[in-house]
């Protein structure tokens, strides 16, 4: 019977190593042999799906030192110790410290095989549980980045690809497009989620006299009002991710200090001469195109190029309209839970508004609209959401007439709740003409049928 997983077998005795390997392989267990613990360490990672069997007495790094190193890599990795008679007390102590089992020499082959089988089964369960937790976390974390359009697929794939690379990232996108959501997802999908905090700071929301202390921290007495020491956002995010929103608003003097932090990975609080090391990943976001020198203003070129290792662009909602129904459904369910109200039926008016509105506030605006729908505050949208918006006067006469014709047809469909007979009677056109115009203007009659 083949057993899932691999045994890393470590023993400096070549004859014993060969015999143990043959015994395990005859029982369907994959074995990778090593003559030294150092060689096995080079091949190991936390994703290793097997177990380790190691002798205790070995030149160089012995089995107990090897066991300590393995626990640093993965405390859940099963380790079986092969001991001589005099090593039993040490092996018992290792059991208390987390070793899976110890086998005293000489031992029957069945003893080693049975221990290896049980250890591999335990490892399999551990790895499956980890996979389930990752899948659950991914499903939860994917929600803010909802979208099936190619642009969103590319964005999610890029985020997952760079999540563990620790490169600094620049995020570009319009107001409300979800720049902080992208930064949060990048943190959650990286190993930094387990090691540090996600710390966000809006550089445009703080006055120049405050932002320096917020970022770098200060010592007691550094300035008037600084009564006690304060840890800055940079130091607080060490081990994790620092998100700097509206970084184009950062004062020039603070930009100089921030550039040094990025280059040296050290921070010096206000009022201190001490340089403290920080392990940070910076995700910066801007409402303007920092790559355009006319929009960059007084933002430093060297800071821009230092941040611009990887640039991610979030498409505005109007450029991924196919994602709007999915996002709206998510926001409605979220708002219903938050307000303790039932999920309301989506009327034809709301559906039309979703399709026709340009969403200048992007995803944030859509989320607020969903909340108003749940609260029953969008009654106007249910009957006639568009007349409050200015008519589009651009384009040729023919293009403007097409838009007006489509608007009239939509209003008639709204009035008669999608009923064909009533609509064509009110419009005074033939049934075939009516359907031709629906196709021409890309109007779906069923959107106006009351459910």
Question: Would you mind describing this structure in some detail?
Answer:
- The protein is of the alpha/beta class.
- Helices cover 48% and strands 12% of the residues.
- The chain has 20 helices and 12 strands.
- The strands form 3 sheets. A 5-stranded parallel beta sheet has the order 2-1-3-4-5, with helices on both faces.
- The longest helix has 34 residues, at 109-142.
- The radius of gyration is 32 Å and the shape is flat.
- The model is unreliable at 139-143 and 380-390 (pLDDT under 50).
Q: Structural class, judged by helices and strands?
A: alpha/beta
Helix content: 40-55%
User: Count of helical segments?
Assistant: 20
Largest sheet: 5 strands, parallel
Oligomer: single chain
Q: How would you describe the shape?
A: flat
Mean pLDDT: 85
Estimated radius of gyration: 32 Å
Describe the strand arrangement of the main beta sheet, using strand numbers.
2-1-3-4-5
> Strand percentage, roughly?
5-15%
Low-confidence region ranges: 139-143, 380-390
* Count of DSSP strands: 12
Between the first and last Cα atoms, what is the distance in angstroms? 58 Å
């Amino acid at each position: 019977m083949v057993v899932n997983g691999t045994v890393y077998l470590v023993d400096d005795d070549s004859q014993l190593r060969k015999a143990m390997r043959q015994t395990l392989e005859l029982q369907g267990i994959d074995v990778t042999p090593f003559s030294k613990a150092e060689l096995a360490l080079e091949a190991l990672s936390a994703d290793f799906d097997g177990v380790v069997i190691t002798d205790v007495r070995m030149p160089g790094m012995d089995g107990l030192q090897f066991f300590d190193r393995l626990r640093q890599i993965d405390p859940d990795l099963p380790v079986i110790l092969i001991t001589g008679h005099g090593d039993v007390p040490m092996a018992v102590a290792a059991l208390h410290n987390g070793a899976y089992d110890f086998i005293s020499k000489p031992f029957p082959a069945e003893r080693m095989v049975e221990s290896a089988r049980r250890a591999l089964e335990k490892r399999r369960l551990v790895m499956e549980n980890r996979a389930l937790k990752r899948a659950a976390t991914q499903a939860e974390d994917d929600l803010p980045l909802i979208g099936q359009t190619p642009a969103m697929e590319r964005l999610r794939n890029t985020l997952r690809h760079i999540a563990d690379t620790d490169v600094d990232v620049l995020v570009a996108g319009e107001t409300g497009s979800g720049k902080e959501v992208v930064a949060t997802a990048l943190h959650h999908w990286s190993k930094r989620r387990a090691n540090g905090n996600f710390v966000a700071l809006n550089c445009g929301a703080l006055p120049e006299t405050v932002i320096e202390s917020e970022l770098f921290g200060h010592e007691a007495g550094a300035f008037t009002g600084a009564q006690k020491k304060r840890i800055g956002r940079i130091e607080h995010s060490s081990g994790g991710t620092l998100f700097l929103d509206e970084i184009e608003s950062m004062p020039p003097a603070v930009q100089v200090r921030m550039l040094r932090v990025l280059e040296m990975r050290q921070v010096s609080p206000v009022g201190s001469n001490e340089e403290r090391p920080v392990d940070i990943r910076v995700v910066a976001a801007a409402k303007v195109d920092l790559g355009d020198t006319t929009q960059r203003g007084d933002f430093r070129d060297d800071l821009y190029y230092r941040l611009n290792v990887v640039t991610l662009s979030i498409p505005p909602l109007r450029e991924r309209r196919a994602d709007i129904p999915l996002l709206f459904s998510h926001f409605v369910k979220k708002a219903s839970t938050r307000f303790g109200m039932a999920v309301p039926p989506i009327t034809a008016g709301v559906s039309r508004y979703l399709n026709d509105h340009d969403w200048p506030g992007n995803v944030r605006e859509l989320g607020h609209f969903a909340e108003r729908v749940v609260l029953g505050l969008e009654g106007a949208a249910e009957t006639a959401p568009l007349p409050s918006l200015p008519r589009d006067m651009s384009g040729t006469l023919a293009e403007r007439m097409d838009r007006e014709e489509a608007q009239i047809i939509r209003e008639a469909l709204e009035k008669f709740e999608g009923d064909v007979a009533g609509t064509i009677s009110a419009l005074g056109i033939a049934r075939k003409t009516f359907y031709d115009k629906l196709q021409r203007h890309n109007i779906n009659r069923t959107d106006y049928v009351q459910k």
